Automatic annotation (TrEMBL):
InterPro entries: BLH_phosphatase-like, Prot-tyrosine_phosphatase-like
Organism from which the protein derives: Rhabdonatronobacter sediminivivens
Protein's recorded name: TIGR01244 family phosphatase
GO MF annotation, one: hydrolase activity
NCBIfam families: TIGR01244 family sulfur transferase
Domain (Beta-lactamase hydrolase-like protein phosphatase-like) ranges: 2-110
Length: 141
């Protein structure tokens, strides 16, 4: 497991396993967001397996599957709602952390400066720069 802090209270990770959940809880996270569609992965790491482990450890689990190259406004709004209702630090995961960083940046448009949103994911090599125009458009409302 490779937890990458993107902002205060929000980190991303490549795919997690049920065995990672204790360490996630120990690291202080209160909510785990799955941004990975089940169709990409084997059953042992699909959403319901992770949900059972996360909820069993006393944390909140949110399913918001993001299809690579096809992020929707529904994904953006769901990510923002999950963050707003988190009540503590959030860990979001997908295949590499890229989609989790992008959907976070889009959900935070207008709440944080665009440069900050782009830089947060870029420091880990995530493809956030190409979303700058969309972030700016969302920030304008």
């Amino acid at each position: 497991m490779d937890i990458r802090p993107i902002a205060d209270g929000y980190a991303v990770s490549p795919q997690i396993t049920p065995e990672d959940v204790a360490a996630i809880r120990e690291a202080g996270f209160t909510t785990v967001i799955c941004n990975r569609p089940d169709g990409e992965i084997p059953p042992e790491v699909q959403a319901e397996a992770i949900r059972a482990a996360v909820e069993g450890a006393g944390m909140r689990f949110v399913l918001n599957p993001v299809v690579g190259g096809a992020i929707t406004m529904e994904n953006v709004e769901a990510q923002g709602a999950a963050l707003d209702g988190a009540g503590g630090p959030v860990l979001a995961y997908c295949a590499s952390g890229n989609r989790s960083s992008i959907v976070w940046a889009l959900s935070q448009a207008g709440k944080r400066p665009t440069d900050e949103l782009v830089a947060a994911g870029a420091k880990y090599g995530y493809a956030t720069e190409q979303f700058r125009p969309t972030i700016e458009q969302l920030a304008r409302g």
